[in-house]
Amino acid sequence: MLGVRRSTAYETIAEGTFPAPSIRAGGRWRVSQEALRRLLDVGRGVSSQRALCR
């Protein structure tokens, strides 16, 4: 989805450089769906992305 490997995403979260807020819940990392949608909307029209989510 983001064009990076899972291990790279985990590394950036651990470094604090992941481009969306994340929290550790139990043994897993969590990122809100809204934060990911905003991240993916960069460079796209928001209205076209909202149409896909309906």
Can you offer a commentary on this structure?
It is a single chain. The chain is an alpha+beta fold and 54 residues long. The protein has helices at 6-15, 33-41, 46-53, and strands at residues 22-25, 28-31. It has a two-stranded antiparallel sheet. The longest helix is centred in the first third of the chain and has 10 residues, at 6-15. The protein is globular, with a radius of gyration of 13 Å. The model has no long low-confidence stretch (mean pLDDT 79).
* Separate helix tally: 3
Can you summarize the main beta sheet?
Answer: 2 strands, antiparallel
Strand order of the largest sheet: 1-2
Strand content: 5-15%
What is the CA-atom radius of gyration, in angstroms?
13 Å
Class based on secondary structure composition and strand pairing:
alpha+beta
Question: Any key phrases for this structure?
Answer:
54 residues, alpha+beta, two-stranded antiparallel sheet, 2 strands
